[in-house]
Amino acid sequence: MKNSFDEKILEEANDWLNANQKVVLATVIQTWGSSPRQVGSRMIVNETGDFSGSVSGGCVESAVVRECIGLIKDNKPCKKIEFKVSNESAWEVGLACGGEIAVYLEQIN
Amino acid sequence: MKHSQLKEIIKKKASKIEFAIVTNLENGLSEIYEPGKSLSKEFVIHKEQIDNFFKLKKNGVIENTEIFIETYIRPIKVIIVGAVHIAQYLVDFAKSLNFEISIIDPRGYFASEQRFPDMKIINKWPHEAFKEIETNENSALIALTHDPKIDDPALQHALIKKFYYIGALGSKKTHENRCQRLKDAGFNNNQINSIHGPIGIKLGGRSAPEIALSIIAQLISETYKK
């Protein structure tokens, strides 16, 4: 059975929009291998980089925030990004768990 | 997504309507779909797959397409019998876990608004109270009074309606007596053994929030087993 453990973020997105903030919604749309969060996991990001919710266990959130701010700056409606296994020798963003995830970003306006 | 669509989603969730959001990941177009209702030109060719995702309560991308489906289902109904101290903590946990809680307690001094602000408490005996709550095999019961007069009718209702989780507070001895009473009332061993008693996973905790945590942990575990 599925419980909707993860849906309160939309109410928060609505609060941010009502406070005249720009909001990008990031959703995990696909996962391969062992990924930390399931499909449908979400976070929201505003134009100043404040964020709430999660799409991983803290592994890729900083990159998602950067991408979301970029989306607002370029005034694009949506974008799909993928994250793969991290290279531990480099200081790059990736999933230490060895999984892969695809995240869909969309502006709410 | 438009802000107006987000508002509509929140409204539908609040009125406990089950629906799905269908999104074209290439162009960003999205719409709300309810089973039995029509889809726009953009998505109508995927109707069969969308219905299939809905049936399985699944989220995901339709294979070989750029169409993402997210299903929204009603929160799981959890009925607590006994507006006791542990119930106050269960209500707190349930808020962040998105369970829909109803509390039954015929004892007015327990079921006060001051003890449970913003909570609907049914101040009636279980056999009357259950007339006000629609329950089925996706419902859960947490019996906390360990008073047979109050707990037993609720347990019997949950067994008859085949709740997926039934737990009852009380010591091993209390639970043995409870099982015997249910047996005398005509319930079989399979039914009786489906009751989690003493309730909760073994954490070793003793305080009300600790017991609430062990109950909620067991409830989540059973939710994912189903």
Task: Give a short summary of the structure.
The complex is a heterodimer of chains A (109) and B (226). With 109 residues, chain A is of the alpha+beta class. Chain A has helices spanning 9-18, 61-73, and strands spanning 23-32, 42-46, 51-53, 78-83, 100-108.
Characterize the structure shown.
The complex is a heterodimer of chains A (109) and B (226). Chain A has 109 residues and is of the alpha+beta class. Chain A has one domain. Helix content of chain A is 21%, strand content 30%. Chain A has 2 helices and 5 strands; from the N terminus they run αβββαββ. In chain A, strands 3-2-1-5-4 form a 5-stranded antiparallel β-sheet, with helices on both faces. In chain A, β2 (42-46) and β3 (51-53) form a beta hairpin. Chain A starts with 8 loop residues before the first helix and ends with a strand. With 226 residues, chain B is an alpha/beta fold. Chain B has 2 domains: 3-72, no CATH class; 77-225, Rossmann fold, CATH 3.40.50.720. In chain B, the strands form 2 sheets. Chain B has a 6-stranded parallel β-sheet, with helices on both faces. In chain B, strands 2-1-4-3 form a 4-stranded antiparallel β-sheet, with helices on both faces.
Give the secondary structure arrangement, pairings included:
The complex is a heterodimer of chains A (109) and B (226).
Chain A: H1 9-18, E1 23-32, E2 42-46, E3 51-53, H2 61-73, E4 78-83, E5 100-108
Antiparallel strand pairs in A: 1-2, 1-5, 2-3, 4-5
Chain B: H1 3-14, E1 19-24, E2 30-33, H2 41-44, H3 47-55, E3 60-61, E4 67-72, E5 77-81, H4 85-97, E6 100-104, E7 121-122, H5 126-129, E8 139-143, H6 148-160, E9 165-168, H7 172-184, H8 189-193, E10 195-196, H9 208-225
Helix pairs in contact in B: 4-9
